[in-house]
Write a structure and sequence with these properties.
Elements lengths: L2 H7 L40 H13 L4 E5 L2 H9 L7 E5 L4 H11 L5 E5 L4 H7 L4 E7 L11 H10 L3 E5 L4 H4 L9 E5 L13 E5 L2 H14 L5 H11 L2 H20 L4 E5 L9 H7 L6 E6 L5 H6 L5 E2 L9 E3 L11 H6 L7 E4 L5 H14 L1
Parallel strand pairs: 2-3, 2-4, 4-5, 5-6, 10-11
Antiparallel strand pairs: 1-7, 6-7, 8-9, 9-12, 11-12
Bound molecules: pyridoxal-5'-phosphate.
Amino acid sequence: MDIETQVIHGGNQEDPLTGAVVPPIYQTSTYHQYELGGEAAYEYTRGENPTRFALESVLANLENGQYGYAFSSGMAAISAVMGLLKAGDHLIIASDVYGGTFRLVHQILAPLGITYTAVDTADTSAIQAAMQENTKLVYLETPSNPLMHVTDIRAASDVAHAAGKLVVVDNTFASPYNQRPLELGADIVLASGTKYIGGHSDVIAGYVVTRSKELADQIKLIQLSVGAVLSPQESFLLQRSIKTLALRLERHNDNALEIAKFLAEQDQVAHVYYPGLPGSADYEVARKQMRGFGGMMSIDLQPGLDTKYFVEHLKLFTLAESLGGVESLIEVPAVMTHASIPREIRLANGIKDELVRLSVGIENIEDLKEDLRQGLAAL
Ligand SMILES: Cc1ncc(COP(=O)(O)O)c(C=O)c1O
């Protein structure tokens, strides 16, 4: 099945008890155990919940994996995967990962004795060079946030696997509609479900999917033991959103490509970071491994132009963190999403103070262009 059909029919979307076409919300924390010490399929919602299980099976399907786990946030999903590491282990991460991921690695994992090397993962030889005896996993994010760098997942996986390391991909920006890392060699795919999967800026969620039973058992153990599970209500909302994932992403892709081309032609814009522009260094790899280029991009305004004035004077693009919702958003990573990265590291990774990130929504394209046109003209 194509993903356009999978979003409607993939996974266990029907309620086995009643045949309800929409899985009901099992809003219960616990279950009657009819026999003391007997084998009960459902005992306690942190471990088992039918609404969450239904979502998890859809997510596993969308990512073309076998085992899916839903968490209370994207960071909870990332933390669960990092839970595979122990003191003395080393990991390689992309140098421009999401600020929250960097904060987790730098401020929480490093003091526990888990070391890391941040490299430009678009350069496979840099991954190779950073490899150590004790490297356990290679953590990729592609397209990256906020510079939209694209890592060749197949090439990076080949290098990592040749050395016996695991490959993890954060698929938040692409979503499984645009990219399926497990098909490209990754061992684990994870994402913030808050973004394109949720799609309406009203849920915080995350997920992990793998094809490996061994990894799945470990993730399940962490999910159960740490307890950052997704609630039944939110599991329901995500399933509702997933039904329109393909439609929404198609429109995000179309709108963003047109906005990227439009912005590239404006005098006030110095650079557009979008892998769908043929002039972009990331274009060829993106075309090879992505179905569409996604709804995210960043821009540099010409030096001297007032970034603050620009982002505050748009009417449709709302100044807000997050991304992937139906409404267009705009933000300044240095002050907002990436403020948790020390400035010198942020600048070294190419994230300038004035960089502006856009999450292009599914509004009418002419209205979006007009909003940006008036904002730029006001400068
Ligand atoms: C690429 C990426 N990964 C992970 C996260 C964390 O997700 P959440 O905010 O759902 O915890 C974000 C949040 O913005 C993100 O952009």
